[in-house]
Give the backbone structure.
Amino acid sequence: MTIGIDARQPLWFYDFVSPFTYLLLEQHDKWPGFDFAFTPVVLNELYRHSGQVPAYSLPTKRVFMYRHALFRAEQLGIPYKMPPAHPFDSTKPLLLATAAKGDVQFVREIFRFIWREGRDPSSDEAFAELCERVGMPDGPELIKSAEVQAQLQRNTADAVGLGVYGVPTFRLNNQLFWGEDALPMVLYCARTPNWLESREVKRVSSLPSGLPGKQA
């Protein structure tokens, strides 16, 4: 039986395919002091539901994204090495984290395997090594479980229902904060939640579209 997302608690949505999600997790010591529920989701499914074109499908945007991630890593002093190909199939590590109900240490170890060591978690050999590293040598069998696979699908569907459209995304006080560069905003809103109720924030949050046939 799958378990639905408890939207009453602070949430953090992630997919291992995202370099910016790795960079944000490496700044965990700066996060607001809440117990975020780490929630794996399938990024491509979020894109599909929201009608977005993945950045890596546009050649010039793909190059910029990879350069920007490297720049941010160097700027932040975070060890960083891209895996041999991107995008890669992140299904196996997502299912592993789902099966383990992975906490920050567990999830961070997987991210570091991919984005600090530059490994491809989709290959059988590398995934088996990853499972050993996180203390789940039976991982290759665990991820075949229909219940585990259904739970990841449920996570993703519930995230879509909450309006999540990308990763990394914080959900705090019923608000979404997307992207590695949103951390200062998350921190500010955690300290000053009334800012979201200010007149100008409300105004810009409900602006109509100025283009015919376009919904805001």
The chain has a mean pLDDT of 96. Residues 197 and 203 are 10 Å apart (CA to CA). The beta strands are 11-14, 37-40, 169-172, 175-178. The chain has ten helices and four strands.
